[in-house]
Amino acid sequence: xxxxxxxxxxxxxxxxxxxxxxxxxxxxxxxxxxxxxxxxxxxxxxxxxxxxxxxxxxxxxxxxxxxxxxxxxxxxxxxxxxxxxxxxxxxxxxxxxxxxxxxxxxxxxxxxxxxxxxxxxxxxxxxxxxxxxxxxxxx
Length: 139
Known about the structure:
The chain is mostly helical. It has helices spanning 2-16, 27-36, 40-45, 58-71, 82-94, 104-108, 119-137. α2 (27-36) crosses α4 (58-71) and α4 (58-71) crosses α7 (119-137).
């Protein structure tokens, strides 16, 4: 019985621990790392094993603000463009997890109006909100 519990626990942790790695970084991420003089390691360490972003880190906030601006997920007023975010979420999360029943709208709509202290903080909070809904949908 203990072996079964151990195997199930390990399998569960492997399933959950799909941590972000360098292959997930995009062109705009590298451009922002260069502009802000940040390392790949710093950016990757900004995500936990469940792909939530660290909140309250000004350098990480600057990075995600830069990255989302360059990707077009923030408009010229630094406000989130929900339609662009939905497209990104649909392509990079929803379509890559076909067993999931959640849609991009399910993830973006409840989170799109969250506000932080600045645009970078807002992006982190909105992103984490979407990840929380996504993880909850997996149960």
